[in-house]
């Protein structure tokens, strides 16, 4: 079976790497960014192109949601399976006469960071049983955690991930901005952050809540508001309001 | 040296446990909640009281910020050291003729969760060198990470911790609310959450940002807003606005 990955961003890179590490042969990596493709191709020992898409049985489009449709139109073949890796798009975003599917890895991908692929949940949606079998077989070589998911459910999985990952990372970024402003090393907070995550393996996040808002400690809340400004102040107020609503304080 | 811990909440429990585990003798655990104190005392093999505070060299007041002043007035002795564990109060919140200090462990404490005390940073502020030595010696038996800190700096440490821990946990709680509403197991998101935290050990959080807001993917941002309501929608808008401001999008 011939497989091509299309894309030169973080998701494409990590998928290609997971394929190579798990001995799933890649016929080609295809994309626009020649510099990136060259780097990836040298690291993984795969061929690449920015111009000529090779003939293949499976095309995995791992590009940003905005580009999926445009890229999907570049595939002229009919007798093939084309998948995208988006958490939010329906498989019908793929525009062509081929078989369509969704192949969504739930993870945050940064190029410079090694990943344990075996723990990444894959959510798959296909048009028929045969394609489902193909994609389950491939994903199962990479991960222990492969599931079916409708587009409707996948949208909510992606939305949950935005809260649990993207927004969490942004809180770290704003937190570091505050500690940097006082020359407090951010490393001090790493054991606290680890424990915050360790906790939710054992306790419901709702029951694990600590801090001034859930204690309704108005004096501290006011003090903190005086120390903050701009977007961090907005976040502070919004989060405290939401905490107090959740616990009916 | 006689040591008493005052309080029956999470911080008092975990401090008492850390003391006992590290063979620092406790003369007494003192507090209002007899039921809790009895449980802790039975688990740790320490004596407790809700009425008679024993004579001691060091009193550690581990109660909520709102109660520190009131509790500190209960200590009639002069020749002793009294400390509180608050991240936000000055040591002058302690009202008495004794020596005063701050003894702030940077961690999130939940009773039902085991903790690795050796990784907890302790921030200490005293009136004199002798008391500093006493508190450093005690804290160093528990943790590898003991530092001095002024009240001014401690306020910002606490504020940073609210973003990096309390708000992060609340995002987990709101995320779980979303996934629960669609009967999506929250366990799916644990590898993603782990990776989100693992990343900041290697990459600046600012550089690790992923997701629709930093890609300025307006179509997804609008779709997500349609799926949300109430406090989660407010959080969604505030966080995206802050992300887009940070990256000047």
TrEMBL record, chains A, B:
All residue ranges annotated as the DUF2520 domain in the record: 120-242
Could you tell me which SUPFAM superfamilies the record lists for this protein?
6-phosphogluconate dehydrogenase C-terminal domain-like (SSF48179), NAD(P)-binding Rossmann-fold domains (SSF51735)
Give the Pfam families listed for this entry: DUF2520, F420_oxidored
Q: Where is the Pyrroline-5-carboxylate reductase catalytic N-terminal domain?
A: 2-83
- Its recorded name reads DUF2520 domain-containing protein
Q: What is the lineage of its organism?
A: Bacteria, Pseudomonadati, Bacteroidota, Flavobacteriia, Flavobacteriales
